[in-house]
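Sample pair:
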Amino acid sequence: MDNLEGRIAVVTGASRGMGRGIALALAEQGATVYVTGRTVTDGKHSLPGTIAATARECDERGGRGIAVQVDHSNDEEIAGLFARIAEEQGRLDILVNNAIAIPDELTQPGGFWEKPVSNWSMIDIGLRAAYVASWQAAQIMVPQHSGLIVAISGYVGVTYTYSALFGTCKTALDRMARDMAVELKPSGVASLSLWQGFTYTERATENLKSVPGMASQLNSAVGSSVEFPGRVIASLAGDERIMEKSGGTFIAPELAAEYGITDIDGRIIPSLREERGAPIWQPV
């Protein structure tokens, strides 16, 4: 992993889960990380974690964490975040679009017609909010002729997982990252999509205990820590040839092998390309 001292990053949806892990991994390399999310008070969410707690952990890792409450369904709040970054830092180096609304019904059995139409919020937060954040980030990155925008996706982009809307969201996110790369290429700003497999987030761990058929995965060798994708992103951000990857969809464990990265416990996380599918989009 490369040293990110002096780099400015935004990680959306970082109160807990993968967003928190990515923020910590970037901070550990010295980055200043704007940690966004809605949870500011313990106990307000069914799962533990707040943006302030993540920001404090970023400080403890050697970087700097800045907690900013943002409802990613609100365009004005997203705009306010990036206006603040422009004013306080004058630059932006990394945007990780991780935020997504995960309804309780996602892992429950049943067809899309048996679940609330409100599950569409996965598209609103998981796709539209990523577009708005990328639009705002580009206002800063394009003039400076540098930057990296990462969309957090997964094998669900090509393989059915949980629900029709979940797959639709991630497939669209992959394509959007690719087409943004086409338009950003002349400016020297990179955009790509990162496929992360099973991750031991707080929600996933609870689901493994309670959702029928999932308990067998609790100690699965293919699962990674929440920090694993952040380690990969840190190396991407430090790669002087990052534009050669712009527009592509990449499997996190395969990039980890390329950069010589292991998980926090030293494990090599396997690629599930053969079992779950291969990315569609290649660099532009």
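The chain has one domain: 8-276.
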